[in-house]
Structures are given as C-alpha cells and as structure tokens.
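pasting for the record
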Amino acid sequence: MSKKKKKIIAFIDWYLPGYRAGGGQRAFANMVSYLREDFDFYIITRNIDFQEKKPYKDVSSDEWNKLADGENVYYASASEIGYILFARLLKEVKPDYAYVNGVYSPKFSIFPLLLLKWKKFNGRIVLGTYGMLAPTAIQIKQRKKRFFLKLARLLGLYKNVFFHATSEQEMKDIRAVFGVKYKVKYAPHLPDKEIPEFKKIDKKPGELRLISVARISPEKNTLFALECLQRMKSDGLKIVFDLYGPVYDRKYWEECKKVIKKMPENIDVNFKGIIAGNEVINTISKYHFLFMPTRGENFGYVILESFMAGRPVLISDKTPWRDLERRKAGYDLSLGRIDDFVSKIGELATMSQELFDDLCKEAFTVGKYFLEKPELREENKKLFF
C-alpha cells in the first residue's frame, strides 16, 4: 500500500504553460517536476501569462486543472483573485505545507501570507525570494520596497516563515534585511531533468555571436552590455548581439535604444522578444557566448542553462557562478571595470575554433556536474521538513 503524499499549496503569479516571466517561473516549475513524487502540488496562479491580456487557450479558468505530469493548477481570472477565492481553496485543499513565490506581489505573495496568518495555518510556510532581497534588487524602486519591508517586519508578516535561499549569498541578503532570528533554509534551484545533447557550432576568428536571455531592466544591466559594445573598435570584427526577453522597464528600454542607434557598423544588435522556456537551451546553443553583466543574481538560472547548452558565459561577478576562467567555462568580471568587458569581448571575437570548442566542453561539464548532484532533490525536499 503506497504512502499518502503530503499536500503543498503554492501561490505564484505565473505558471505553466506560461513562459514569459523568465527564470523564476521555470525554476519553480522544475521544483514541482522533481518533487511531485513526494508531494501533491496544488498551485494557484493567474489564467494569463506575464504581460499578456488573453487567457491561456488550453486550460479551464476558475477551476482546478490536472496537468499531464500530475500537479493540480487553479487558473484564476483577474476578477476572481481575492480573499474569498483563496480562503475557499485553502479550505478545499487542506494542505500540509504552503509555498509562496516572491516578495512584493500584492496578490500572490503578500495577500497569501496574510491569509495564511489570519487562518492560523499550522503547516510550514516557505517563501521563495528569487533574489528580490539582494541590495541591487532593492535599489530598484527602493523607497517603496524599503517602506514595505520595514512595515512587514513591524507587523510580523514573516514570523515563522521559512525563507528559501538558493545560494550562500542569498542567505546573507535575507539576514541582512530581516536579521539572524528569521528562519532561512538553503536549497539550490533545480534544473531541467534531462541533459541536452551537446552541439558544436562554427567559430571563425573575427566573428562573435552573443546572446542575452533576460528581461530588459536595470537589474539585468542591459544598458551596460550595450555600452560595452558601443566602445568596441571595428578592427575588422563582426559582432552580433541578440536580446531575448520581455521589456520590463519602458523608460530604460528607450535609453537602450538610443545606444543601439549609435552602435558601430560592425556590431549588429537585435531585439528578438520573448522566448518560450522550453526553447531557451536550444536557442543559446546557436550562439557563442551568453553575455549578461547582471547587477546581481541569487542563482542565475539562465547561466546554468547556458552551461547545459554547452556555451561559455561572459557575466559579472555578482552571481554565485564564480571563478569561471579557471574552470574554463567563461568569465566573471567586475562591473566597476567596463574596459575589462570591452577588452574581453575583443578577445572572444578573435578566439579560434579550437579554444572555443575547449570552453564549450568545459561549460557543458559544469552544467552536467550540477545536474547530476544527488543532493539537489533532497535539499529541496527538506524545505518542507
């Protein structure tokens, strides 16, 4: 007789089949895929994807949907999201645990926490912060965020809540905001279960294809990446930089476009829009390097996806992925030295096929090693014990 599985109720703004919200959305979906053998998931989310107005075509809104892989998902329409719905679903499910995604979302983070407190929920509440408490993240709209965080501390919103940190740095960031008395549990993000096939591509000296898969926003430092390319001298080099992701900050994107218009003739920058989550690895494999000088990542899910695609990266030193040059999987440079980025891009452009192939093999090894770590699944299971 099989043991009855414990139930987890989860709140997230956007879930499958959506993909426009990026790495956090994919990371939570992967957690579900790894842990569904141990828990029954009941996920409450919107019936539309990020920045979309039309509901998903193949789901039933305002009722439970049983997805093919086993999780139960309630796709709520905007008019239904609120206290009455969440309270009813909480009563229906009778969960053993709760997982709340994000910090600042009024409807799918703050409100669920208030409801769980009001209903005196006895099970463990786990909160995934997704890097939102990093200093660089708080700096964006910092007055509102700091006011909210101060108010949350005063009201005890996170009392008896377990923060889910996906890196050592994120643990430090959480404790820097809330203090050492708050409960923090470490469990890294889980990658896709399957290791893709390694694919080689041509790399001619003098040519370079760069890709960014991230929302267009200050925290992802898109403008900095463009300014690096703008400083490049021609020198017979041919560089392509393709941007994939949603425009998160319109004013910021306008600044980016001004720089793109002044780009040297030998540098071609293209905005490609949003890419489906299941196409990210395959798309990255068509480029030479992931270029993402981010201002801070708690994990950097797309960096792992680049390694899984067998592609080295050019990133900042503000992620957990460090010491990459020694590991021959890429480069993590200081944002305080833009000339180093410019110089490195020049080196990458002139790189030979042989050296590039070596970097690709080592990047793939880094990704494969991470995927095969047996403790990944267990550490995520222990979030709820």
